[in-house]
Each structure stands twice: as structure tokens, then as C-alpha cells.
Specification:
1 helix; disordered N terminus; 8-stranded antiparallel barrel; mainly beta
Length: 175
């Protein structure tokens, strides 16, 4: 019995570094360019859509068999809609949150969640901010030791009946 316990302990000891090597391609500081589709849902109005663009940063660590990370991004969008009065244009959207993922195939499958703050601009009379939460699901693929591409779906829910559905692609570099 002692031999089996010792063999299992040795196997676990060798497996942990192997998992860390698999996760290594997805760890460290990263910066990325974001581009995608943005659909804004405002209660009682037609859902405008447009092109989302922005930048993101993050830092990921391998912890056991998973990758955990902190991330932030700043995006804007071409989405706008017309009310009875002036046009309303989406403005910047700031996000800070975390993600947890696991290596699947040659990539990292992850979920994300965090705080987001969006701004809507009203032509000629300023704008307003809305606080909310974001949740998402994505897949990151390492192109080389430093570069990667990723795709993700993001749902954001803000105060005052505003929400967003976004499909985002990114190209990034790890340091």
C-alpha cells in the first residue's frame, strides 16, 4: 500500500509541472487590440448596433491546473440611436474584472466577470454614465511564445435598463 501512495505522490509531483508548462503560454502581462460587434439594448427602443474598438491589458497566473487573471479594457463603439429629440451615441466603456480558464487543445477556454461603466453622449447636451456588471466567455489561442488571438462573447447589464451584447476579437502580445 505504501508503494501505491508513494507512486501516486510522485506522479502528482511530475504532473503539476507538466500542467504549469501547458499553462505557461497563457501567463504574464498582456496588452491587446480589440475589435468587434456591439449591440446596445435600451428598454423600449430599437437596439442599435455598431463596431466596437479599443485596447485591453491584463496579467495572468497559472494556479494549479487553471489560469487566473486580472484585466481591464477601454472601448468605444459606433452604435447610436435616435430619440424624438437629439441623437444618442455610445461613448467609452470601461471594464475591470477577472478571468479564470483552463487549457483546452491549443488554447485557453475562460470565463470572465467584473465591473463596467459606460457613457452615453447626447448630441449638444453632454451625457451620462451607467454602472454595471459584465460576464463573458472566451477562447485564447497562442500564435507564438509572445503573441495571441482571442474571441469572446460579452454581456453587460447597466443601471437604467441598458444592456449590451458584444462579440469581440483581439490580437495581443505577452511580456
Amino acid at each position: 500500500m505504501k508503494k501505491y501512495v508513494l507512486a501516486a505522490a510522485l506522479a502528482a509531483g511530475f504532473a503539476a509541472p507538466a500542467m504549469a508548462q501547458d499553462n505557461a503560454a497563457f501567463t504574464g502581462f498582456r496588452v491587446e487590440a480589440l475589435l468587434g460587434y456591439d449591440n446596445v439594448n435600451v428598454s423600449g427602443l430599437k437596439n442599435p448596433d455598431g463596431v466596437l474598438f479599443g485596447v485591453g491589458i491584463g496579467y495572468d497566473l497559472a494556479v494549479g491546473g487553471v489560469v487566473v487573471g486580472l484585466e481591464a479594457d477601454a472601448t468605444d463603439s459606433t452604435s447610436k440611436f435616435k430619440l424624438v429629440g437629439p441623437d444618442i451615441q455610445t461613448d467609452r466603456d470601461l471594464y475591470i474584472g477577472g478571468r479564470v480558464g483552463t487549457v483546452v487543445g491549443s488554447g485557453l477556454l475562460y470565463v470572465k466577470a467584473g465591473y463596467t461603466n459606460a457613457r452615453l453622449e447626447q448630441n449638444g447636451s453632454g451625457g451620462s454614465n451607467g454602472d454595471g456588471v459584465r460576464a463573458g466567455l472566451g477562447y485564447e489561442y497562442a500564435l507564438s511564445g509572445k503573441s495571441f488571438v482571442k474571441a469572446e462573447y460579452r454581456y453587460s447589464n447597466y443601471e437604467a435598463g441598458l444592456s449590451r451584447n458584444q462579440a469581440v476579437a483581439a490580437f495581443g502580445i505577452r511580456f
